[in-house]
Every structure is written in C-alpha cells, then in structure tokens.
Amino acid sequence: MSTLTITPGAQRTLKNHVTIAQTVRNSFSMAARGLIKIRRTPEQLIDVTVQPIIFTLMFTYIFGGAIAGSVADYLPLLIPGILVQTVITTSVVTGVQLREDMDKGVFDRFKSLPIARIAPLAGALLADTVRYAIATTLTFVMGFIMGYRPGGGLGAVVVAALLVIACSWAISWIFAFFGVIARSAASVQGISFLVLFPLTFLSNAFVPVDTLPPVLQWFVNVNPVSHLVTAVRDLANSAMFTSDAWISLLGAAIIVAIFAPLTVRAYMKKA
Amino acid sequence: MTYSSDWAVEAHGLVKVFGDNRAVDGVDLSVRTGTVYGVLGPNGAGKTTTIRMLATLLKPDGGEATVFGHDIRREPQIVRQLIGVTGQYASVDETLSATENLVLFSRLNGLSRADARRKSTELLEEFGLTEAAKRPLKKFSGGMRRRLDLAASLISQPPLIFLDEPTTGLDPRTRAQMWDTIRRLVATGSTVLLTTQYLDEADQLADRIAVIDRGVVVAEGTAGELKASVGSASLLLRLADPAALERARHAVLDVLGVEAVLTPEAGRITAPMSDPDSITDLLIRLRSDGIAVEELAVQQPTLDEVFLALTGHAAGDDESAEESPDESPEGPTAGATTSPRPTTASGPTTPELENAR
User: What SUPFAM superfamilies has UniProt attached to this entry (chain B) (predicted)?
Assistant: First the structure.
C-alpha cells in the first residue's frame, strides 16, 4: 500500500451528475460483465437453444397441415411468428436473472460507485441481446432446414432479425421492471408469463387473423406483437420495410421510455 | 455550504425505519479525517443500516449526514466519488475471476482498458492474490474474498472507506492479516469507518469508538474512556509458591488499595486494576517481599460486560434483529467469550497487557 497516496476529500474536483457519455461507457462495462457471465454459465443458454428447435418443429408439423394446408405453405407464415414469440419469451429470463443477480452483494457495490444508476440494469439487458441473437439465428436455421426459403433474401432476413432483437430488448425492460419490484425470481416468472401469453398468442403469430371472432380480431390488430410479426414477415418474405416495422420501432421506443425510468426508480428505492 | 476537511463524516439524528422497527433511531456520529472510527454493537443494533445510509445505499428516513461536507441526500453522486464500501459479505461478482472483478470495477471507476489491467495486477499483488487471479471466486477462502473485496474498494483510492464487519467469520490468523491491511490503509491517509461485534477489534484498530444498541449510540469515546466507563480490567497473578498467597494479598491491599480474591488451589490471586501504573509498584513490592510470580495476566472486560454495563442487557439478547445480512454464522457473542480470556505476559501474544491502559 506504500504506492498509494490519498488525495484529501476537500481537494478533489467532483460533480454531482453523470454525463450521457459516462452513462453509455458504464453500461457497456456492465454489458461486458454480462457477457463474461454468459460465457461462464453456458447452461443458461439452454432455453434459447432448445426452445427455437423444439417449438419450430412442433408448431410446424402440428399446425402446418391444418392452418395452411401443407408444411411448406405454413413456413413463411409461421417462422416470423414463432421467431417473435420465442425471442420475446426468452426476454422474460432477463427479468428473472436480474432479480437473482440483484440479491447478490455485488449490486451493493454497484450502487456505491459513482456510476450512472441505469448502468447495471442497461448493461444486463444489453448483454442479453446475445441470447436473442442466438434464438433468432437458430429459428431461421431450423426453418431453413425444414424447407423455408425467405423470399426477401439474406439481407432482409438480417434486418428482420435485428428488428426482432431490438424490439425484444425494449420489451425486456418490462420484465426487468417486474424483476426489480418482485420479491423472488419465481414470482417474476409468474407475473411475466401472465403478461406474455395473451400478448404472444393473441396475435397473428400462428394463425390468420380473419379466422378469429370479431372481439379477438380487434385485440389482435392493435397488439404490438402483431405489428412486429407482420413487419418481420414483410421483411423476410418480400424484403419490404413496411409501416408495421415503423410502428414496432415506435412501440419499442415507447416501452423503453416508460419502463426504463420506472425500473431505474424502483431499483434505486429498493434497499 | 461549508467544505469541511476536518470531518470525514458528520451525522446528526439519523433515522431508518423498517415497517414498525426503528432500526436506526437517531444516530449521531462525527468522524475526524485521517482516523479510524469503530462502531461497535451486537447483531441487529443498526450498524449495517447506519453504514448503508452513509454510503448512499439507503435513504435515511430522518436526520442529516455529510461526507467531507457533502450532503448524502443532495449530493449522493459526489459522496460516491469519495467513499469505498466493503460489506460483511464479499460484494464482488462470484461468477467472475478476481482479475475480471477488479478490471470491471476499474473500468466503472473511469480507468482506460490498459490502466484497468495495470491497476488490477497492482492490487492483486498488493493483496497477495496474484496466484489466485484467474481462479473462480467460488474456490476462494473467506479471507481471500475479503481481501479482494477490500482491493475492489481501493481502486479509486477513496479518502473514506466503510468496512462493515471486516473480520466477521474469519479465523484468527486471517483476522490479524486483515487488521494489518487496515492499519496500512490508514497509514496512507485514509479515513476508516468500521463496524464490528468485537471489542478487541475496535480496541486494536479504532481511535474512537461508538457503542450502538437498538439503533441508538449508547456510548462514545476512545477505547480507554469506554473501558473506564464500563469498569476496570482485572489483574491476575499466579504465584510460584501458593503458601505466599496471604502475603501477596497484603501486598495488593497495601499498594493498590483493593481487596484481592484468592484461589488457593491454583495459587492464583485476582484484583481489580483501576490504575495500571501502580502495577509496577506492586511487582517491586512482591520482589522485595520475596514472592515469586509465575504468571501475570490482565483480564479485559468482555463485550458482554461492556453491553451489560452500558445497556443493562446482554449483547445478543435483542430478538428484533432486522438486518438479515448481519447474521453471522457464529452468533452474536462469538467475539465476546463468556468466560474471561486471560492473556499471559509470558505467552506468545502480549499486546493486550498494553491495551489494558
């Protein structure tokens, strides 16, 4: 400790606010931590690897014949739908893991550091985009194996994938909020799925909307998930960046604008 | 606003309420810059809660506090630039290695990638963790974790360091190492505010001590003042010849002016020791009387005695322990053994004789 010399408190130049540049820097440092954690605990990736494979197989062969007449005809409809559903579902895990993480002592240290308050949260969420990328890639690969040939070409598929990942990141703020306010990790999962199921199943992800009763049709059409599914279909199948894509991005921005401040505030209040 | 450099911490009437439990109920603390301040108390006394409020981890429900003149409520971000916090349980990331932890915290403290690496290597070396740098933290011993935890607190070289029970649960050897580390820290000019359940720890390290119980400071002062308020230590003599006991008792009565207690079977004599200086006189008298002393020891007042004297109840019989992280595996009275611990002057560890002053 001989090398240390302490600058007295009164002689330091200090500021009571955090700049945006520092916020971004802190968040990326936290994201780097998240990536190391993912690398250390690869078993946490089971859901994002197994779920796309099983769900895609299951839904394609169960519903394919009934809904679209054949598996081949169903794939262009289903793959974008199942993609959105899978990736949004895996974003629930973000909230659950955040809850578990916050119960550990290291979050105390994060709070005691002169860093942006949002950084530990934003970093964790940012690192989880890796999970969404894995789920997205696997879903498209599964579709390809089963015979899905996206009409939009590879470029459009990549754009569609990025759109899904961005929107899921936004939605994960909702689950992060549950993660911060919930008492236990198990209850986060409970609340989250309660929100998630109506949102993903009451959409155009699996079935054509016109087969639904009028009341449901109304909900499905306003459901932001439907817009995202449509946007992905338009992109992957015909390389069109439609108004649904813009609506999805707008919806994502609104979710972040509401839930990020709510989450940070709840996080700061929590002891 | 006054930027005081004299006081590292000034707290007035801090209050924190959890439900209907007033965990901290009006705590006043003044910690002078460059000193070690010990907050002594049993589990659930409100030590951790107080530290968490001062470290901006918890918002106080009442009262005021400043760190180097900066209000903990209005200027939390400034306070955070001036402090380092080391918790009871290692607050480092268990899934990361030691190096990864230090690099992360260095980066968060604004160091560049290269500087962060350099700083981590430096700190690992300083805390004797270089060999374990890449090992998973799950395989770290309790002492190694504490050291890493402390290392992480020192990255920004904060002028004020909070140590929340730095040695709870450590074995005696590791504990002594931790004490050395803390002493070296103070030598660099840091101010340290530490909490502890152990009287001897506060005694060893702290310049001033506040005894806290049920959320209230019940006594404050130097270790000496504190002990004087509690009652004196007692002197224990074992004579080579038990037959000389009665003569020794007379000598004690003459020189110290107090009545000694005899234990004839063991050839021992115990006397309250209010004035350590007169011990020399007693020893000279014993020598001139031809009474050979085989063992000389001083019994410290234990934490139990301190608490009993200050609060009227024993340490740890407070059932409303609210701070869950405060639960140490050894229980509240682990440091304060119920039986007195004599320290022989001829034994391998002698510093306590000196501490009896």
Answer: P-loop containing nucleoside triphosphate hydrolases (SSF52540)
Q: How many helices (H) and strands (E) does chain B have?
A: 12, 15
Q: How far is A108 from chain B (nearest CA, A)?
A: 7
Structurally, at CATH architecture level, domain B232-300 sits in: 2-Layer Sandwich (3.30)
Q: Which residue has 């609340």 as its token pair?
A: A191
- Provide the 10 A C-beta neighbour count for residue A246: 12
Per-residue pLDDT in tens (0 to 9) along chain A, 271 residues: 434 456 666 566 677 788 889 999 999 999 999 999 999 888 888 888 898 899 888 888 888 888 888 888 888 888 999 999 999 988 888 888 888 888 887 888 888 899 998 999 999 999 999 999 999 999 999 999 998 899 888 999 999 999 999 999 999 999 999 999 988 888 888 888 888 888 888 888 888 888 888 888 999 988 889 999 999 999 999 988 989 999 999 999 999 999 999 999 998 876 4
Instruction: Report the number of secondary-structure helices (H) and strands (E) in chain A.
Output: 11, 0
Extract the tokens encoding A40.
Answer: 């250390």
Q: Where in chain B do CATH 3.40.50.300 domains reside?
A: 7-95+136-228
Q: Would you call B112 an interface residue with chain A, using a CB distance cutoff of 8 Å?
A: no
Q: Which residues of A touch B138 (CB under 8 A)?
A: none
Residue of chain B minimizing CA distance to A113: B80
Query: How many other β-carbons are positioned within 10 Å of the β-carbon of residue B184?
Result: 14
Cross-chain Cβ contact A108/B87 below 8 Å: yes
CATH superfamily label, B7-95+136-228: P-loop containing nucleotide triphosphate hydrolases (3.40.50.300)
